[in-house]
């Protein structure tokens, strides 16, 4: 185990802390003036600085100016009053790349007749990010559960609507207009059922069911879409006196396409 000591410094005590490089949090050792004697590998990662660039420099005046870290400097001075004193606090440290939330522990001790301070730095920035992601995931799960519940209840309503529409189609044999309206209800309930199915699969994270593909006549699909929209158009006319007209120009020789009519 090697000893770390400052070069060209006759009055600096040797610091034997090589094993601290294995710790998962940053370790800095400074003397009572704030001169850096030791700087471990994890602190290099947290602060994005190499130890050879900071060893021998004053932590508070050259590495982290005390005007930016007055609270930190005050805790340091308090801790250095007596060997064995420990101070813990949460701090937003102005690292060069970007500020980071850290938990700091200051521990004063003596070595070779010198008063030293061990600064332990635990970076909680990633923990905070992970915590936020977990909370966001929990909120999304709650939204998914609510959506699944709504989808289930709405699907029950569609079942009632569809059942009654089927009865109307069966009995409206003489009223072509009413039968056409009932068929429109059936078509809308079919499309609604497909939409609810997709919502349920998404909310519960089930594997998405492949969309059924059939031979679709595009002209008929356009006419059906207009038929659905006519009710909205009429409501606009009644409520806002808007005048909505549909004009179609459909080709006669369109081939069938393989697609999902409800998706289209």
Describe what this molecule looks like in 3D.
- The chain is of the alpha+beta class.
- Helices cover 47% and strands 17% of the residues.
- The protein has helices spanning 41-47, 51-54, 59-63, 70-79, 125-171, 176-204, 218-240, and strands spanning 26-31, 36-39, 86-93, 100-111, 114-123, 214-216, 257-259.
- The strands form two sheets. The protein has a five-stranded antiparallel β-sheet. Strands 6-7 form a two-stranded antiparallel ribbon.
- The chain is rod-shaped.
- The model is unreliable at 1-12 (pLDDT under 50).
Compact description:
This protein is an alpha+beta fold and 264 residues long. It contains seven helices and seven strands.
Order of helices and strands: EEHHHHEEEHHEHE
- Tally the beta strands: 7
Taking Cα atoms only, what radius of gyration do you get, to the nearest Å? Answer: 36 Å
Question: What is the spatial order of strands in the main beta sheet?
Answer: 2-1-5-4-3
Structural class by helix and strand composition: alpha+beta
> How many helices?
7
Give the CA-CA distance, first to last residue. 72 Å
Contiguous uncertain segments of 5+ residues: 1-12
Beta-strand proportion: 15-25%
Dominant shape? rod-shaped
- For the residues shown, what is the average pLDDT? 77
Largest sheet: 5 strands, antiparallel
Helix fraction, binned, reads 40-55%
């Amino acid at each position: 185990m090697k000893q770390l000591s400052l070069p060209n410094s006759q009055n600096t005590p040797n610091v034997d802390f090589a094993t601290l490089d294995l710790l998962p949090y940053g370790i800095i050792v400074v003397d009572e003036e704030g001169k850096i004697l030791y700087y471990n590998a994890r602190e290099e990662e947290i602060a994005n600085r190499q130890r050879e660039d900071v060893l021998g420099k004053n932590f508070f005046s050259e590495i982290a100016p005390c005007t930016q870290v007055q609270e930190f400097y005050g805790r340091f001075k308090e801790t250095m009053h007596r060997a064995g004193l420990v101070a813990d606090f949460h701090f937003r440290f102005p690292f060069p790349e970007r500020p980071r939330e850290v938990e700091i522990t200051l521990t004063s001790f003596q070595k070779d007749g010198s008063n030293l301070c061990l600064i332990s730095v635990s970076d909680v920035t990633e923990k905070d990010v992970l915590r936020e992601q977990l909370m966001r995931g929990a909120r999304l799960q709650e939204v998914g559960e609510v959506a699944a519940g709504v989808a289930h209840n709405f699907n029950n309503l569609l079942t009632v609507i569809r059942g009654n529409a089927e009865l109307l189609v069966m009995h409206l044999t003489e009223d072509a207009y009413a039968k056409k309206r009932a068929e429109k209800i059936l078509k809308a309930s079919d499309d609604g059922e497909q939409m609810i199915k997709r919502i349920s699969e998404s909310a519960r994270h089930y594997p998405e069911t492949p969309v059924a593909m059939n031979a679709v006549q595009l002209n008929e699909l356009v006419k059906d879409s207009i038929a659905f929209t006519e009710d909205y158009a009429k409501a606009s006319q009644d409520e806002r006196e808007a005048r909505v007209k549909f004009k179609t120009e459909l080709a006669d020789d369109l081939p069938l396409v393989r697609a999902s009519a409800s998706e289209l």
